[in-house]
Design brief:
three-stranded parallel β-sheet, 9 strands, six-stranded parallel β-sheet, 10 helices, binds fe (ii) ion, alpha/beta, TIM Barrel
């Protein structure tokens, strides 16, 4: 057993994550050292910036799967879906890339503006048996000073906080928000969101912060039990 990381850009040549196979392997080495036993690989699916064809994503997944060694975490394919027109159409068509073999998917929203109708749409996903996981809620400006909104949103999706933000590497306001969501008990899980090898040192610092401030049981809950629950189709409390 070990940690389960729901968010990373380990697959090479698809987005702003690993640029080549050597970097993918170095990231898997660092993830193994961090204690991760299952790594979800979540390349961007973002219309305005990174929208690799899904066949290319599958090819990169197959190549990295072939390169990994038994010491590395096992891999599960998913995507970081931006809530844009592509996502909206995929929601209608039932083709949102999920965590493979599960009813859960990872989604991000623009920093400055919550998509209109988002709460209702998330509620509908839940009614359809889906588990939406909201990537890095600490980045979203509308949640910064609105705990009531955060609570409403948290009822219909799982908040995934970035470990680097907890440790202080993603900006002051983001760090404050990340720690606040953890202390309020609204964080469902944490993830590395690693784009490069150095991000995994930041992730280790984030885990150390949780361990020190909230206790080791919180580390186990946020980086082991909750992500496993999500992958088995549950929305953690
Ligand atoms: Fe990401």
């Amino acid at each position: 057993m070990g940690y389960v990381d729901l968010h990373s850009h380990v697959l090479f040549g698809l987005d702003d994550g690993a640029p080549d196979p050597a970097t993918s392997l170095a990231m898997l080495d660092a993830l193994a050292s961090l204690g991760v036993s299952e790594q979800c690989v979540t390349p961007h699916q973002k219309a305005s910036q990174y929208l690799p064809a899904w066949a290319d994503v599958e090819t990169a997944f197959a190549e990295v799967s072939k390169l990994r060694n038994p010491r590395h975490p096992t891999l599960r394919l998913a995507a970081e879906n931006m809530w844009d027109d592509v996502f909206y159409q995929r929601a209608i068509d039932g083709t949102i890339p999920h965590y493979t073999g599960t009813s859960a998917f990872l989604v991000e929203i623009p920093r400055q503006l919550m998509p209109p109708g988002m709460l209702d749409r998330l509620f509908q996903f839940g009614r359809a048996g889906k588990v939406p996981v909201l990537a890095h809620p600490e980045r979203y400006h509308q949640l910064w000073d609105d705990d009531a909104l955060a609570r409403s949103l948290r009822r219909v999706c799982a908040f995934q906080i970035d470990l680097g933000a907890i440790a202080g590497f993603h900006g002051k306001r983001e760090t404050k928000a990340a720690r606040h969501l953890l202390e309020l008990g609204l964080a469902a899980c944490v993830a590395t969101d690693a784009h490069q090898v150095g991000d995994l040192q930041q992730a280790a610092a984030g885990l150390a912060w949780i361990d020190k401030k909230l206790g080791h049981a919180a580390v186990v809950r946020l980086f082991d039990h909750a992500p496993r629950a999500i992958l088995s189709g549950e929305l953690p409390d």
